[in-house]
Task: inverse folding
């Protein structure tokens, strides 16, 4: 009986939010989570880097407390992402297999965009192949925000800037996001949303665009 019930459980969806720092991802994830729960869809929200030991090390590097090479940072993100997927306690794969819809703030497209500023994008994509083979998002939501507006939001909402939060860098990262989307067109389901509007307008646009992808 239990085995039959287990087989009949539908897998949850996996929604990844992407965008440059200050694009408003965290706000939109909160709003989507609330909207989906009102629709009776059980959700779990998470983010990268995680709060695991590997993710905590990345946070220390991002805040400038530890210095290391950008290739090392890229490799740490690969390891943190695999643990994010496969961890026995709160791994994404287990949650989705149990029927939970998972919404993540950043996934492998963040690595493609941020790390390919310093190294070949193909290298970054290959380094993350295990993650993409294990689990691709049902849909990736890219909030496309003007870097000037993003920097203003960062200045208002944070006590300190992290390693990648400079306008010149964010301009390059946005370009790399668009390059990665073009490169992987046909392999990934990507929704682009204009992030230069009110929070409510963005939230409604996201909902209208993703609802047909949900189980």
Result:
């Amino acid at each position: 009986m239990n085995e039959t019930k287990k087989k009949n459980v539908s897998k949850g969806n996996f929604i990844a939010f992407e965008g440059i720092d200050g694009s408003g991802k965290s706000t939109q994830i909160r709003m989507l989570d609330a909207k989906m729960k009102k629709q009776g869809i059980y959700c779990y929200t998470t983010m990268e880097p995680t709060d695991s030991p590997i993710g905590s090390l990345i946070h220390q590097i991002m805040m400038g407390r530890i210095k290391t090479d950008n290739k090392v940072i890229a490799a740490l993100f690969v390891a943190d992402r695999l643990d994010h997927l496969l961890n026995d306690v709160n791994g994404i794969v287990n949650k989705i297999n149990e029927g939970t819809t998972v919404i993540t703030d950043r996934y492998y497209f963040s690595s493609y965009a941020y790390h390919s500023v310093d190294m070949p994008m193909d290298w970054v994509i290959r380094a993350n192949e295990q993650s993409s083979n294990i689990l691709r998002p049902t849909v990736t939501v890219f909030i496309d925000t003007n870097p000037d507006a993003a920097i203003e939001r960062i200045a208002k909402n944070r006590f300190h800037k992290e390693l990648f939060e400079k306008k010149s860098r964010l301009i390059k990262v946005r370009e790399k996001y668009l390059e990665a989307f073009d490169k992987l067109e046909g392999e990934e389901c990507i929704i682009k949303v204009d992030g230069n509007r009110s929070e409510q307008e963005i939230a409604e646009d996201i909902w209208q665009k993703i609802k047909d992808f949900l189980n």
The chain is about 55% helix and 10% strand.
